[in-house]
Amino acid sequence: MKGDKRSGRAGTRLLVLLILVFVCVPFVVAGEYPDIGPLPKRKAPKPGLVEMGKRLFFDDRVSGDGAISCSDCHDPQKGFSDGKSLSKAYPGTKYFRNSPTLINTVYKAMFFKDVGWGWDGRLGASLNDVMRDQITETTIMNMDMRLMHERMKQDPVYVKMCMENFGGECSSGKARKALVAFLETLVSRDTPFDRGRLSAEAKKGMALFKGKAGCIRCHNGPYFSDGKPHNTGVPENFEIFTDPIRHLTYRAVLTTHGTPKVMQWRRDVGYFIVSKDYRDVGKFITPTLRELKYTAPYMHNGVFSTLEEVVEFYNQGGGKDDPLANELRPLGLTEDEKRALIAFLESLSSTSPVTVEPLKIPQEYEPIENWLEVKN
Ligand code: HEC
Ligand code: HEC
User: Which atom of ligand 2 lies nearest, measured to the CA of 282?
Assistant: First the structure.
C-alpha cells in the first residue's frame, strides 16, 4: 500500500514536470514576451442580466443629479469612449483624462491580477469595484449608493428586472453585477487580426511590431498590454492647467488619494497617485491597442489625434522625460514601415464597429398604482 502511494506521488511529480515543460517551452521559443494572439472566448453572460445592465448604462438617473449616464462619456457610437481629448465629468467639474474605451475591458480582470483600472491603475481592484467607483466618484457620477437603490426601487422596470434576475428587490450590488454583465458583451468581434486575414502590408507591420519597432515589449498578449505602468514621455495636455475647472478637478483627485506635494505638480503624475513612489511619476498603465480605429484621440490625455502622430512619437524614441522607459529608443522607421505599422494597428479593430442601439430611458417615475401591480 505504502509503496503504491509513493510511486503514485512520483508519478504525479513527473506529470507536473512534463506539463511545466510543455507550457514553458513555447514561451521561451516565442521570445521574452507573451505573444499577441486572438482573445480567448468568455462565458456568455445571462441575457436578462445584460438587458438590465444596458438599461442602467443608458440611464441618467444613475448619476446624482440625473444629468449624465455612463453612455455620455463611453459613447457606443464612438467606440465606447467619447471622441474628446479630455473627458467631460459630473456637472460643475471637467475631467483631466481621456475617456477610455470599454470594449474588451472585461479582459483586464482575466489577464492582470494586480493592476487596477483607469489610466493610472487607481480605479478599483476588480471590475465590480470600478463600477462602484464610477458611480460614486464625485467627479464622475457623484451618486450615493443608497439613493440609487431607492431610485431603482421606484422604477417598475428595474423592480421587475431585479426580481427576474436575482429573485429579490433591487440593490446597488445587483446593479453593479448587471453593469459588469453588459460590459461582458463589449468584445472585439471580427478583427482581421483575430481571423488571420492580414493584408500583406499589415503582415509586414506585425513583423515590425514584434521586431524593429519593439512595440511588443509593452503591448503584448492577446489584450496587447502587459498591464504595467511605464513612462513613455507623452507631452502634457496643458488644458489641465489652463482650464481652472479641470485644474481643480485634478488637484481634488490628487488630494483624495493622499498624493504628496498636491499643489506643486505641473504635470499629470500618473501611477505615482497609486504608488507614491517618485520613480513612478509620469507612468501610465499600457493600454490595449484593440479598436483604435474607433477610439481617437489617443493617450491618457488625448494629445495625439491620429495613429500617424502616435507612430511618429515612438519613431522619435518616445517623448522627453527622465527617466523614460528602458524599452524606448529612436526606431529609424522608413515611411513605408510607418505605414505598415499603422496598417497592422488598424487590423486590430473590428471590421464593423462594436456598438449597441442606444436606449432612451423615460425619466419620469410611473404612478405608484402601476408599479405596485407589477410587484405583486
Ligand atoms: C463623466 C464621464 C464618465 C462617466 C459618466 C462614466 N465614466 Fe467610466 N471613465 C471615465 C474616465 C475619464 C475614465 C478614466 C479615468 C482615469 O483613468 O482617470 C473612466 C474609466 C472607466 C473604466 C475603466 C476602463 C479601463 O480600461 O481601465 C470603466 C470600466 C468604466 N469607466 C466604466 C463606466 C461605467 C460602467 C459607467 C457608468 C456606471 C461609467 N464608466 C461612467 C469617464 C466616465
Ligand atoms: C515602454 C512600453 C511601451 C512601448 C515599447 C510601446 N508602448 Fe505604446 N503605450 C505604452 C503606454 C504606457 C501607453 C499609454 C501612455 C499614456 O497615455 O501616457 C501607450 C499608448 C499607446 C497608444 C495609445 C492607445 C490609446 O488608446 O490611447 C498607441 C496607439 C500605442 N501605444 C502604440 C504603440 C506602438 C505602435 C508601439 C511600437 C512602436 C508602442 N506603442 C510601444 C507603452 C508602450
Answer: 18
C-alpha radius of gyration, the chain, whole number: 23
Q: Which ligand is nearest to the CA of 256?
A: 1
Would the CB of 70 count as within 6 Å of ligand 1?
Answer: yes
Q: Measure the CA–CA gap between 214 and 216, rounded to whole angstroms.
A: 5
> How many angstroms separate the CA atoms of 11 and 4, rounded?
10
Q: Quick one: residue 64, left, alpha or beta (phi over 0 = left, psi -120 to 50 = alpha)?
A: alpha
Question: Counting Cβ atoms within 10 Å, is residue 63 exposed (0-12), middle (13-18) or buried (19+)?
Answer: buried
Residue/partner pairs of 271-279 with CB below 8 Å, 24 or more apart: 271/120, 271/121, 271/229, 273/120, 273/122, 274/116, 274/120, 274/121, 274/122, 279/323
C-alpha cell at 167: 429573485
Secondary structure of 290-302 in HEC code, one letter for each residue: CCHHHCCCECCCC
CA of 134 to the centre of ligand 1 (A): 6
Question: pLDDT by residue (tens digit) across 68-118?
Answer: 999 999 999 999 999 999 999 999 999 999 999 999 999 998 888 777 899
Q: Which ligand is nearest to the CA of 136?
A: 1
Query: pTM of this prediction?
Result: 0.90
Q: Is the CB of 95 under 6 A from ligand 1?
A: yes
Find out whether 180 and 108 touch, Cβ atoms under 8 Å: no
- pLDDT tens-digit readout, 278-297: 999 999 999 999 999 999 99
Residues 6+ apart with CB under 8 A from 115: 108, 121, 227, 228, 229, 285
The helix (H) or strand (E) run that includes residue 285 is: strand 284-285
CA–CA gap between residue 363 and residue 66 (Å, rounded): 9
Q: How confident is the model at residue 375 (pLDDT cuts 50, 70, 90)?
A: very low
> Would you call 117 helix, strand, or coil by DSSP?
strand
Q: For residue 75, what is its C-alpha cell?
A: 459613447
Are the C-beta atoms of 341 and 213 separated by less than 8 Å?
A: yes
Check if the beta carbon of residue 127 is closer than 8 Å to that of residue 180: yes
Domains in the chain, CATH or no CATH each: 47-188 (1.10.760.10), 200-346 (1.10.760.10)
